[in-house]
Amino acid sequence: MPRIALYAGSFDPVTNGHLDVVRQAAKICDRLVLAVGIHPGKAPVFTPQERLDMLAECCKPVARETGCEIGYFTFDDLVVTADGFIYITETKSQKVTRINSKTGEVAVVDTGITRPNGIALTPDGGTLAVSDSGGDSTWMFRVNPDGTLDGKLPTMPLRLPINYDGEFKFNEPPPYLAASSGDGMAVDKKGRFYVTIALGVQVFDP
Fold first, then answer.
1. Residue from 189, 191, 186, 190 nearest 202 by CA
2. 100 CB contacts (<8 Å, ≥6 apart)?
3. At what angle do helices 48-66 and 16-26 cross, to 10 degrees?
4. For residue range 57-97, what is the model confidence (pLDDT) as tens digits?
5. Shortest CA distance to 196 belongs to which of 118, 127, 79, 130?
6. Distance between CA 21 and CA 29 in Å, rounded?
7. Do the Cβ atoms of 62 and 71 come closer than 8 Å?
8. What is the percent of the chain with per-residue pLDDT over 70, rounded to a whole number?
9. Which among 192, 77, 189, 184 is positioned nearest to 123, based on CA atoms?
10. What are 111-169's pLDDT values in tens digits?
11. What is the distance between the alpha carbons of residues 168 and 77, in angstroms, rounded to a whole number?
12. Given 3-state DSSP classes, what are the helix, strand and coil percentages for the chain, each rounded to the nearest 5?
């Protein structure tokens, strides 16, 4: 069975420290996946593609010297299951992608969320949650033993900021923005979700 390692970072820019970690990792694995993190709310020095290109160029000698296969991709957030499946959100592409750390297989497992961002697993690994920074919900999926997802539902509504440029009418709720800016999230051992949004942190107890 091939040994596959994952190294995630912003790589903005690629530094000698990054390359040292790559060199050490390449000596002990057969395939090394370098994941370039993207945050929609931050302004990086280099674009995602420029960072991918820099990594590919800088890591060519390492791949030749060690014989390690090095792959590259971008992501917003990620989570890893006990079975070795890596799920990443790709906000700009509006998709959730699964990487099989044992085989290196990459597959899109969901599309359609406006801006998939934060991602988290319940303690038992049976439920995956994805926050929508461009909408008003956190979506939940059932995680099957083979890594596929189903049962998609918008189960956790996210609070929306008031739209102060909108029209305020007497005796009616204020106008709201369409996007919650749902971002990173975490889950505690009791299965409660903590989701960051524009207004703060929302806590959900399923």
1. 186
2. 84, 85, 86, 106, 107, 147
3. 40
4. 999 999 999 999 998 888 889 999 988 899 999 888 899 99
5. 118
6. 12
7. no
8. 99
9. 189
10. 999 999 999 999 999 999 999 999 999 999 999 999 999 999 999 999 999 999 999 99
11. 36
12. 15, 40, 45
Residue identified by tokens 């969320």 is 113
Task: Give 79's contacts (C-beta < 8 A, 6+ positions apart).
Answer: 86, 87, 119, 120, 121, 128
141: Cα within 13 Å, side-chain hemisphere: 20
The residue behind tokens 């979506």 is 139
Say if CB 74 and CB 33 are below 8 A apart.
no
Look up the pTM and report it: 0.79
3-class DSSP state of 12: coil
CA distance 89 to 37: 10
Q: What is the band of 41 on the pLDDT scale with cuts at 50, 70, 90?
A: low
Non-local CB neighbours of 194 within 8 Å, separated by 6+ positions: 185, 186, 187, 188, 201, 202, 203
Report pLDDT for 105: 86
How far is 183 from 130, CA to CA, in rounded Å? 9
CA distance 38 to 92: 9
Q: What is the C-alpha to C-alpha distance for residues 43 and 33, in angstroms, rounded to an integer?
A: 24
C-alpha radius of gyration, the chain, whole number: 19
